[in-house]
Amino acid sequence: MSGRERSYRYVGPVELKAAVRHGDGGRRIGSAADFGGWIVEQSAVELVEPFTFVVGMDGVLRLAPRRSEHVACAGGDVVLSAGEISFVREADRWTVSEVSNQSTGYCPDVASWVEVARALDAVGIRRPSGFTHEVVFRRCPDCQEHNIVREDDFVCVFCGSDLPAVWNVDPTA
């Protein structure tokens, strides 16, 4: 992957991916000018809620309204990370106020932060040192259900089996 971390295929409901049409996808934010053009289009109401984001295989950030599906934001493609992100204006520049890997469609590992950081740095947006809210995803080896691990309790909420300590959501990854 030429210096890239793991990639993530969509693992959510098939009907959501099937609804993605050619040309769907979030706004590509590859430069400060791209971000500047996009952010001025957002209303005050929209800026109060987080936005859906993905980092595409090209390492570029893509943004969409919060209630957008991650798979639509990605145009149905494989991603390097996915989640939700909020921005706040501080003095003379935009800053990421909150960012998470909350995407039940891609279930990215917390290690995908490095790709988010690279994409934000490329645009020149000030950011935190990591996800402000980390979501730990695991697939149960027994019942195959996707789980969100809470409070370091690595037990499947569906069948009670132990969940692995390492990311395993996509068996082909």
Characterize this entry briefly:
With 173 residues, the protein is of the alpha+beta class. It is 19% helix and 24% strand.
Describe the structure.
The protein is an alpha+beta fold and 173 residues long. The chain has two domains: 14-132, no CATH class; 135-173. It is 19% helix and 24% strand. It is built from five helices and seven strands. The protein has helices spanning 14-18, 32-39, 44-48, 70-73, 113-123, and strands at 27-29, 51-56, 61-64, 79-90, 93-100, 136-139, 146-149. The strands form two sheets. A five-stranded antiparallel sheet has the order 1-3-2-4-5. A hairpin with a 6-residue loop joins strand 6 and strand 7. The longest helix has 11 residues, at 113-123. The protein starts with 13 loop residues before the first helix and ends in a 24-residue tail after the last strand. The mean pLDDT is 94.
Which terms summarize this structure?
173 residues; alpha+beta; five-stranded antiparallel beta sheet; 5 helices; 24% strand; globular
* Count of extended strands: 7
**N-to-C terminal Cα separation, in Å?**
13 Å
Q: Walk across the major sheet and give the strand order.
A: 1-3-2-4-5
- Summarize the amount of helix as a percent range: 10-25%
Overall geometric form: globular
Work out the helix count.
5
Radius of gyration: 16 Å
Tell me the structural class.
alpha+beta
Strand fraction band? 15-25%
Summed up, the domain count is 2
* Oligomeric status: single chain
What is the succession of H and E elements? HEHHEEHEEHEE
Task: Give the mean pLDDT.
Answer: 94
pLDDT < 50 runs, ≥5 residues: none
Question: Mind describing the biggest β-sheet?
Answer: 5 strands, antiparallel
